[in-house]
Amino acid sequence: MIRTQDILEARILIVDDQAANVQLLQRLLHEAGYTRVSSTMDPREVRALHQEDAYDLILLDLHMPGLDGFGVMEGLTADMTDSYLPVIVLTAQPGHKLRALQAGAKDFISKPFDLVEVKTRIHNMLEVRLLYKLLGDYNMRLERAVDERTAELRASEARYRALTELACDWYWEQNETGDFTKVAGPVPEMLGVRFTDFLGRTSPQEVTGWVEAERLALQATIAARRPFLDFAFSRVNADGSEQQFRVSGEPMFNQACDYIGYRGIGVEVTIKKTLALV
Predict the structure, then answer these.
(1) Smallest Cα–Cα separation from 267: which of 175, 157, 187?
(2) pLDDT at 209 over 80
């Protein structure tokens, strides 16, 4: 929330070529409790002053010699780092109000001044301006937090993959169309597919010894995008020996919950069983 003190400490610039108008607005603002009020009677200084001080509000007279208020707003707009131009125009010409709003001004005050109207419009304008800045700061912090969290997740994912590859006999990843993007171990042969390696060469793999019913069941599970744990898989080698495996896998999704592929691991359990019998 915006505190009253925040509004009274906002940076305000008065721009008017008439000394009487500047003095009147300065006295009005000081009496209302505003503590950071400055002024200039030279419209050509406004651009540089705003670049240096980043005013929360500029009270801008439209009718000034040399460079009028519209020219000042054009210069300010060229330097804007956000989409909010903190300007209230001062004018005695009703027909200029719409043009000023179209040029980027956020409000207007009619001349001769109604002091109650002036104080009300300035207070309301500053409240909106400070809320806008508060929202901008919050969005920046949120973006930084998202970037930091995304970097942490990517680092965590990289560690997970590295540890997974070390802890299993094979590891694989597939994209949303089923093409392999990362493989370590005999996965292409196990699934009965052709694997295109990272150099672009296609190597046919012979499907030999695998139990067809198990292989088809594994393919169907992956195609259905279902996770599975310790799927039993086996093959008979040319010498008649049998190998047994446990395979686990899960679908992968991005932050928008869109399916982006599949990944899985496998371990051979044949050796473990042999050691247990010794």
Answers:
(1) 187
(2) no
